[in-house]
Amino acid sequence: MYILYDVADNIATITLNRPEAANAQNGPLLEELNDAWVKAAEDPDVKVIILRGEGKHFSAGHDIRAAIPGATSDKVTLELIYQTEARRYLEFSMRWRNIPKPSIAAVQGRCIAGALLLCWPCDLIVAADDAKFSDPVVAMGIGGVEYHGHTWELGPRKAKEILFTGRAVTAEEAEKVGMVNKVVPRADLDSETRALAAQIARMPSFGLRQAKRAVNQTLDIQGFYAAVQSVFDIHQTGHGNALSVSGWPVLAGLDQMKTEIKSAN
């Protein structure tokens, strides 16, 4: 079981439960995670959703060792990659973003590349003071992860800096640009997140739903939805180039991602 699920006091807590792999996302984890989001969305007793990661790190992102469904050891096509990523990354992240209930991500340790697809769809982010956010996939010849929240979450210049250099953004930096709502001591992350969720849960459900819809629709009118859809196709050209150069999985740049995890241990 890669996902733990609990409901108490009108708050659903979804926990990434693969700490031995820094909560890296393989196919089964993402499918279980999506099921948990849907379960919380459909439960009338749930008013607020918390997403957290078990262990030292929130998530090391995609487990690129994981198989592409339908692929064989000697044949991986761009079509297969596109189909898999359209569902597990773009479709899932958009679905979680638009669930009509407030959601809060509690982030600690490393939040790397594909992990951004888990916390960015949440309405609020509470970060531990040891949290670091990064998207080093330009080193793999890809222009950023599948769900392009970068420009919206960080602003255009900071987004370019992070992508061009591959460096990590600290929790304090993320708070300054508005990507993170609150930075708390690591030991207080769960309690502070829970307290925020409890405060929100006291509000009327319909009012929360309408407030979330108002903000998300404003972003969509400004172009968020169309931009994310179009940048996903740009992302896939990176995979196409990688397949022509080095095959799959994309190994160039992988050492940089491994180094981020090792440096925190």
From TrEMBL:
Q: Where are the transmembrane segments?
A: none
| Example GO molecular function | catalytic activity
> Which Pfam families does this one have?
ECH_1 (PF00378)
Q: Which domain of life is it from?
A: Bacteria
Protein family membership? Belongs to the enoyl-CoA hydratase/isomerase family.
Name of the protein: Enoyl-CoA hydratase
Q: Which organism is it from?
A: Pseudofrankia asymbiotica
